[in-house]
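// run 5 | inverse folding | seed 20
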């Protein structure tokens, strides 16, 4: 349709949202479907956080706020960065958006010119390349194979950097793989970046608190202080605090960048919800003791899912360090046929057939830039996960040469 903007042709709808929507539609139509597509904790928002929102509503805190966040929330974010990451930021170095996605988008829109390159390790969160494209930049995809635990290698990063490189996007723990960089691994990456002063670092730390087996989370500016002035450290309350629908993300970085991002936001959405911001203040300043307990639940689910998937014929599943995703390979099923005679040639075929025949909704690895894999979110009940994994085992056992 010629009426639509050309830039629309460069992007596609979010595949993870599409899978979740399809699962909902099938359930509504009466199908027995287990949806493992959504990256959303199944826990409720803690009561003290919900109560803070109710107090804000009853107290009349329902008007416009500063475009990029209230003073109270910015102070809480500064305190969080100092307390948890050893990073000193002032309120003018902080921005708050309607979810982490808006914060990332604002940064790219505020900094990219046509032809600027953004290095994105793959597998990647589905939105990174599309946001770069919308901002008229060029995504430079660097494959990170399973043999390297889905992690960016310093030599591969070095090779990908050109005079046109403006950003490197790092996501640890990762969506979709759950891979997280140890301090030594992160230092090896930052050592490369120190040698290239024109390259900025955008780090998506949304899954910071969801790490397991004693793993120590680190963020680039913490590991390498000399990168502080060219790092945008992005985080939010969605995952650790089970506040996905509240839509609050935030970031800290150099003042000039934060101001530029505020200009973008002022002409798009303006301020995030005042009520959600009040809730986020309580989330960051209030009790944190429930986070390790919930993380332990996720760890148990991870171990269950990894064990059961590795018992499925043709599937191998790496055990990740964090987040609430696994990224199993379905390479052993390629070339086989389903009971109905459908030939599985790609991971797209695998996930479509799995949904059709067993009612399990997962996301194809192609959407994340590395095939043939698929992503499972284990942010759902143990009972549902067990049933879903039994169905995957049954589906794989039914495939024929």
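// decoded
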């Amino acid at each position: 349709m010629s009426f639509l903007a050309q830039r629309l042709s460069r992007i596609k709808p979010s595949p993870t949202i599409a899978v979740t929507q399809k699962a909902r539609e099938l359930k509504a139509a009466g199908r027995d479907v287990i949806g493992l597509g959504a990256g959303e904790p199944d826990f409720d928002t803690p009561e003290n956080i919900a109560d803070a929102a109710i107090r804000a509503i009853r107290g009349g805190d329902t008007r416009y706020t500063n475009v990029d966040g209230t003073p109270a929330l910015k102070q809480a974010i500064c305190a969080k960065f100092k307390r948890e990451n050893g990073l000193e930021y002032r309120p003018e170095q902080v921005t708050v958006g309607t979810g982490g996605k808006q914060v990332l988008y604002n940064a790219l829109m505020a900094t990219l010119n046509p032809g600027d390159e953004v290095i994105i390790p793959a597998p990647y969160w589905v939105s990174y390349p599309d946001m770069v494209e919308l901002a008229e930049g060029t995504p430079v995809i660097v494959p990170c194979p399973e043999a390297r635990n889905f992690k960016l290698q310093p030599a591969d990063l070095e090779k990908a950097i050109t005079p046109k490189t403006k950003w490197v996007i790092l996501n640890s723990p990762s969506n979709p793989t759950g891979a997280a960089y140890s301090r030594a691994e992160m230092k090896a990456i930052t050592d490369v970046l120190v040698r290239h002063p024109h390259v900025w670092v955008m780090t998506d730390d949304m899954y910071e608190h969801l790490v397991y087996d004693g793993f120590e989370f680190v963020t680039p500016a913490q590991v390498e202080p000399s990168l502080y002035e060219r790092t945008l450290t992005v985080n939010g309350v969605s995952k650790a605090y089970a506040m996905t629908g509240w839509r609050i993300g935030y970031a800290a970085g150099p003042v000039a960048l934060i101001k530029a991002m505020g200009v973008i936001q002022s002409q798009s959405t303006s301020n995030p919800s005042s009520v959600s911001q009040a809730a986020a203040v309580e989330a960051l300043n209030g009790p944190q003791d429930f986070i390790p307990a919930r993380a332990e639940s996720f760890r148990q689910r991870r171990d269950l899912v990894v064990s059961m998937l590795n018992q499925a014929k043709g599937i191998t599943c790496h055990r990740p360090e964090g987040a609430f995703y696994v990224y199993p390979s379905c390479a052993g099923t390629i070339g086989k046929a389903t009971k109905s005679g459908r030939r599985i040639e790609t991971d797209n075929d695998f996930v479509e057939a799995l949904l059709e025949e067993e009612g399990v909704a997962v996301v194809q690895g192609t959407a994340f830039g590395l095939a043939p894999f698929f992503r499972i979110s284990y942010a759902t009940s143990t009972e549902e996960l067990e049933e879903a994994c039994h169905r995957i085992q049954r589906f794989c056992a039914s495939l024929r040469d």
